Amino acid sequence: MLIEPNSHLYAYAITRDFGFAPNPFHGLCTLATCKPDIRKSAKVGDWVMGIGGSSLRSVKRRCILLMKVSERISFQDYWDDDRFSLKKPVRNGSRVQMLGDNIYHKDESGVWIQEDSHHSNIDGTPNPVNLDRDTGRTDQLLVSNYFLYFGNEAITIDLNSIEYGRVRNYKKISLSDSKEARDLIASMFREHRSVINTVVSDPCQFMDSHQRVDQGTGKIQ
């Protein structure tokens, strides 16, 4: 079933699109960092839509991502599960490997470990601001095995139909109540069924995969 009973659509602005959050590689789309409120609230069967934010001028207000949540999983289970081993970062590897989002797990005393990644400091040491923002509100990330990811070829959709305007954080829409949102999801998957679960085009900032971000300052280094 495409639209599950009592499900919701979470629409939000993607401010940075490196291929890290969301991470659309290896046949699964994951939202493992950033957007803690969505990661905390979204349930299996819900939908997440990423719209190009004002900082991504070439794809501003275009749809970069639409994914159906197929699994909610803790950071530790994500780290321990062999299904997601390819999502672990390798900072001296390929661009895809550098952007691995499987970066959090705990040591024997229960202290968070942040792997050398897009969210750590330039020298590979943990960035405490990013660590707190990623793990502080929720120990949950989202996995999708049914998604559309357009990257820098983000598509134009009718955002007015879901009343997506100037949204702070995200907009939550009941799919039981909104025929417009249900129709939008259905039409997107009907029109783009040949590219389901693929990376249609590189993320907008893919060529800067070597860089790091600090969520506190917003600076990219």
List keywords for this structure.
three-stranded antiparallel β-sheet; 17% helix; 221 residues; globular; alpha+beta; five-stranded mixed β-sheet
Strand content: 15-25%
Counting DSSP H or I runs of 4 or more residues, the number of helices is 5
Helix content: 10-25%
Q: Indicate the low-confidence ranges by residue numbers.
A: none
State the separation between the terminal residues, measured CA to CA.
43 Å
Average pLDDT: 97
Number of strands: 10
User: Order of strands across the widest beta sheet?
Assistant: 9-4-3-1-10
Annotate the secondary structure layout:
Layout: E1 8-14, E2 29-31, H1 36-41, E3 47-52, E4 63-68, E5 71-73, H2 75-80, H3 95-98, E6 104-106, E7 112-114, H4 128-135, E8 141-144, E9 146-149, E10 171-174, H5 179-191
Parallel strand pairs: 1-3
Antiparallel strand pairs: 1-10, 2-8, 3-4, 4-9, 5-8, 6-7
Describe the structure.
This protein is an alpha+beta fold and 221 residues long. Helix content is 17%, strand content 19%. It has 5 helices and 10 strands; from the N terminus they run E-E-H-E-E-E-H-H-E-E-H-E-E-E-H. The chain has helices at residues 36-41, 75-80, 95-98, 128-135, 179-191; strands at residues 8-14, 29-31, 47-52, 63-68, 71-73, 104-106, 112-114, 141-144, 146-149, 171-174. The strands form 3 sheets. It has a 5-stranded mixed sheet, with helices on one face. A 3-stranded antiparallel sheet has the order 2-8-5. It is globular and about 50 Å long. The model has no long low-confidence stretch (mean pLDDT 97).
